[in-house]
Specification:
Pfam families: ADH_Fe_C, Fe-ADH. Keywords: NAD, Oxidoreductase. This protein is an alpha/beta fold. It folds into 2 domains: about 180 residues, Rossmann fold; about 90 residues, Dehydroquinate synthase-like, alpha domain (Up-down Bundle), CATH 1.20.1090. Helix 6 packs antiparallel against helix 7 and helix 7 packs antiparallel against helix 8. The chain is globular and about 45 Å long.
Length: about 280
């Protein structure tokens, strides 16, 4: 695999992967008649040069952009409600999640809420909420800026209660992004600590998926390759990042999120409640 071109994968959704892939966003929006998207990100990403360049490029194409970035590092229900209110008030017609897991989870949950106005936690997967996801969701696009959670290819969003901080899983195949623009250039300036932390999350996804007891040879093969790519690239991505290392980490992150359809394990079963109690990244 070369790292100087853009590839297209169609598994589990359409993925445009490679340096510069994010620059295809504007033409895709025009082709899809999405002239008024809501862009969901976090406060940090909203200040970065690459994000400002994305917004500038879209404005040059006469695409009306509304940015929502008022989210918590562990997203809560009120984040989703606020974002949905902005979607409604500004007459948006699509949603783009740009960032790490928190921003993309909020974007996905807003996509759910637009046409499902019961209490958000009615759709909690742990109480069978998927059956209530009956309407279509707005056109949903994801652009990852870290190589860790793999949320860009997921079908669920993890959102916490504002008061109890208990996390809920909102799940439905309808919540899968229509297209992912996975551009390793957006991860080049990640600081070493964030690179290491998100990289270990990606490694854990792949490892736990491989070890989960359910028989799923497709996910097991993906998880093995994901672990191999991370073993080749994580140290370099942290200490001496180049395009190859960043590309391998980004694709391995995607692979981990695909693989954990099989299941996860004790690390995540402990990490999620601890992050709720201590308000830390899982």
């Amino acid at each position: 695999m070369g790292f100087d071109k853009i590839y297209q994968y169609n598994f589990p959704t359409t993925i445009r992967f490679g340096p510069g892939a994010s620059k295809e966003l504007g033409d895709y929006l025009l082709k899809s008649a999405l002239s008024r998207p809501l862009v969901v990100t976090d406060k940090t990403v909203a200040q970065l040069d690459f994000f400002k360049e994305i917004i500038t490029d879209l404005n040059k194409k006469n695409i009306s952009i509304e940015v929502f970035h008022e989210i918590h590092k562990n997203p809560v229900k009120s984040d989703v409600y606020k974002g949905t209110d902005i979607y409604d008030a500004t007459l948006r017609n699509g949603i783009i999640g740009i960032g790490g897991g928190a921003a993309i989870d909020v974007a996905r949950a807003i996509a759910l809420r637009v046409n499902h106005r019961e209490d958000l936690f009615k759709y909690d997967d742990l109480v069978g909420g998927e059956v209530y996801v009956t309407s279509d969701v707005p056109h949903f696009i994801t652009i990852p800026t870290t190589a860790g959670t793999g949320s860009e290819v997921g079908r669920s969003a993890i959102i916490a209660d504002d008061e109890t901080h208990q996390k809920k899983i909102l799940f439905s195949p309808k919540l899968l992004a229509k297209i992912v623009f996975a551009d390793p250039l957006l991860t080049m300036e990640l600081p070493p600590f964030i690179t290491a932390a998100t990289g270990m999350d990606a490694l854990t996804h792949n490892m736990e998926a491989f070890l989960a007891r359910m028989h799923h040879p497709l996910c097991e093969g993906i998880a093995l390759e994901g672990m191999s790519l991370i073993s080749e690239s994580l140290e370099k991505a942290v200490n001496h990042p180049d395009l190859e290392a960043r590309s391998k980490m980004l694709i391995a992150s995607l692979m981990g999120a695909i693989a954990f359809q099989k299941g996860l394990g004790v690390v995540h079963s402990l990490a999620h409640p601890l992050s709720s109690l201590l308000d830390t990244h899982h």
